[in-house]
Amino acid sequence: MFRIRGPLRRALALGLPTAWGALAIGYKLGCPLAQQDGLGARLVTSAVFFVVGTGIVHHVRRNLLRELRQARRVAGAAQSVLLRPLPPRVEGLGVAAGRFSAERGATVGGDLYEVVATEHGVRIVMGDVRGHGLPALGTVAALLGSFREAAHDEADLGGVLRRLDRALARHLRARHREEHPAHGPAPDTPVAEEFATVLLLEIDPDGQARALNCGHPWPYLLDGTDVAPLARADPLPPLGPFALPSDLAPLPVGRLAAGQSLVLYTDGAEDARDAAGRFFPLTETLAKAVHDHPVSAEQIMRTVLTALSRHTAGRPADDTTVLVLRNDRTGVRHPAAHATADTP
Asked: What is the Cα Rg of the chain in Å?
């Protein structure tokens, strides 16, 4: 199949509108009919210019749509590299992640997630960067790149969070210099409009879990048909506008026992509304998802996203990401009761 190469395509993009314009000018200057003042002559002249204008508009529109599709493909490929597919199992934990975009055809958002097995336990990050498009994608890249290194290097979860905070600050300063080169050096502290919510989790081989939360929704713990927040402590402020506290001791959030699941999500899940303005019933959806046993992390994730799509008629107001971790390990005793943390 014959394909138009890049140089030829660019020549046509410039040449065709020029040819259309030359045709209209040539008609006006060289055609005797265009010089007449009668009604018929005027109608013919108007029709010629209408056809020429329509052709130019159609040509420009087609080129713009082609460039938009190409930009989306490139951005989607870049985000697929950043948010690489997670393995179905990590150190005995079943893992599943899925995204639901607020805009049809959009592939670039500000959600981020990762699950890595380290010598310090399985470490998880879930976050939501303000904004969409390439600027948000650059921030996601900075945070994920920092997490993937710090998760292995830092023995303490607080050290991982400090690395993410520094990476975000460096990225925002660099972006400020690129976007506003005439404004001089970037400010030492990012502006309040630039921020990212981040949740860090660490799960030991025996299921003990610890967390650090910067402005992100707490995950839900699924124990049978019981659905409850993993913790009720007030989170820290989002990364970016405020400095981290000097004491970053991770919060113990109990044990993820065999058969239990954690559902991490971005706030688009709870904020989604239907046509009548009713919020998406996330907890009820999760309870229904685990009503039939056994269930997998993949089934829980797909049940949530399917219900969300149905609730919003396929048109959510915000992007949503759902990450499910299910403890499929053996030999981890179920605790008599899950103690929910109430204090930071």
From this structure: 27
Tokens for 105, please give them.
Answer: 């055809």
The structure tokens listed for 44 are 């013919």
Domain of 100: which CATH number?
3.60.40.10
How far, CA to CA in Å, does 272 sit from each of 98, 108, 119, 251?
16, 19, 38, 29
By residue count, the chain amounts to 344
Whether residue 313 sits in one domain with residue 282: yes
The two most distant CA atoms of the chain are separated, in Å, by 97
User: Residue 340 domain-assigned?
Assistant: no
Verify that 152 and 69 share a domain, yes or no: no
- For the chain, 344 residues long, the average pLDDT of each consecutive 10-residue run is 48 55 59 58 62 68 65 52 82 93 59 95 94 78 95 96 95 79 55 82 96 97 92 94 92 94 93 90 92 85 93 82 91 42 42
Which amino acid is present at 235? P
**Do residues 235 and 215 lie in contact, with contact meaning Cβ atoms separated by under 8 Å?**
yes
Range of the domain at 28: 6-75
Same domain, 273 and 308: yes
Q: Which domain-ending residue is among 75, 102, 135?
A: 75
State the Cα angle at 231 between 201 and 125, rounded to 5°. Answer: 20
For the four alpha carbons of 132, 137, 139 and 140, in that order, the dihedral sign comes to positive
- 166 and 27 in a single domain? The answer is no
Pair of tokens at residue 27: 């008609």
Instruction: Give me the helices (H) in the chain, please.
Output: 6-30, 32-35, 39-82, 133-153, 157-179, 268-271, 282-289, 297-311
Is 306 contained in some domain?
yes
